[in-house]
C-alpha cells in the first residue's frame, strides 16, 4: 500500500497514477486517509462489475464493417 500526503499527491499526480496501476494508493490529509486512488480495472473487480454481452460484441478498436453496405441498407425499397 502506497500513501501520499495531499501535498505529495498534488505535486506529482502522475506518480500516484503509476503506483495505482499496481496497488491502491491512499491519499492523506493531515495524516488521516481521505481518498483512495486505484486503477479502473481494480475498481471493476472490486465492485463485481462484468462486461455485458453488448460490450464483448462491440470489440472496441475495430473499424465499422462494410460501411458501404450500410448505406445500401438505408436505400432499400419500401415493402
Summarize the structure.
The chain is of the alpha+beta class and 79 residues long. Helix content is 46%, strand content 19%.
Structure write-up:
With 79 residues, the protein is α+β, with helices and mostly antiparallel strands. The protein has one domain: YefM-like fold, CATH 3.40.1620.10. Helix content is 46%, strand content 19%. It has 5 helices and 3 strands. 3% of the residues are buried.
Secondary-structure topology with pairs:
Blueprint: E1 2-5, H1 6-11, H2 13-20, E2 25-29, E3 32-37, H3 40-47, H4 53-58, H5 67-74
Parallel strand pairs: 1-2
Antiparallel strand pairs: 2-3
Task: Looking at this protein, list some descriptive labels.
46% helix, alpha+beta, three-stranded mixed sheet, 79 residues, YefM-like fold
How many discrete domains? Answer: 1
**SS-based structural class?**
alpha+beta
Radius of gyration, CA atoms, in whole angstroms = 22 Å
The CATH topology turns out to be: YefM-like fold
Q: Looking at the chains present, what oligomeric state does this protein adopt?
A: single chain
According to CATH, the homologous superfamily is YefM-like domain
Q: Please report the first level of CATH classification, the CATH class.
A: Alpha Beta
Helix content: 40-55%
Main β-sheet description: 3 strands, mixed
Amino acid at each position: 500500500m502506497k500513501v501520499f500526503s495531499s501535498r505529495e499527491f498534488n505535486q506529482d499526480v502522475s506518480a500516484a497514477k503509476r503506483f495505482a496501476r499496481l496497488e491502491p494508493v491512499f491519499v492523506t490529509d493531515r495524516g488521516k486517509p481521505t481518498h483512495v486512488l486505484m486503477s479502473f480495472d481494480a475498481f471493476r473487480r472490486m465492485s463485481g462489475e462484468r462486461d455485458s454481452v453488448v460490450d464483448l460484441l462491440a470489440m472496441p478498436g475495430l473499424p465499422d464493417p462494410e460501411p458501404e453496405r450500410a448505406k445500401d441498407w438505408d436505400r432499400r425499397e419500401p415493402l
